[in-house]
Design a protein that fits this description.
Blueprint: H1 3-33, H2 39-61, H3 70-103, H4 107-134
Helix pairs in contact: 1-2, 1-4, 2-3, 2-4, 3-4
Length: 142
């Protein structure tokens, strides 16, 4: 696949993920700021909601994913996502504590921590969602 196509697809995925990230961050900040939920727990919920939405949209619109086996593909992606979100959420506690030394405790520190875990997640999500969308599952996928 030409590098230009992959770059274009990554840019489209990053833009879509940006919208998902706004949803994710909004839910995270609401849960932390309004409900008093710990940042790592809030991140589990907010990131799961956003990841599901981004995968469902990107599957066909960006990755040209096969329609065959969408439920299986989504299930697999959500298992992967759960593992990645768990790792990122686990990292939220020390990152929030570190950020709090600069911002003070609370929502601002959680937001900084969220910003720090986002770039590696974005790259991993693009690569895995692309692979999951395109991997052949049987005769219907070619």
């Amino acid at each position: 696949m030409p590098r230009e196509v992959i770059s274009r697809d990554f840019a489209r995925f990053a833009a879509l993920s940006g919208g998902g990230w706004l949803l994710d961050a909004g839910l995270l900040l609401a849960l932390v700021g309004l409900a008093g939920v710990a940042p790592q727990i809030a991140n589990l919920f907010s990131a799961s909601c956003a990841a599901t939405l981004v995968y469902l949209v990107s599957h066909r619109r960006i990755h040209s994913g096969a329609s065959h086996g969408l439920q299986f593909r989504l299930g697999f992606y959500l298992i992967y996502t759960a593992a990645l979100i768990f790792a990122a959420s686990w990292a939220m506690a020390p990152l929030t504590a570190l950020a709090a030394t600069f911002t003070g405790p609370g929502v601002a520190a959680a937001f900084v921590a969220k910003c720090l875990v986002t770039p590696p997640q974005l790259l991993c999500n693009f690569l895995v969602s692309r692979a999951v969308a395109r991997v052949p599952l049987g005769r219907s996928d070619g």
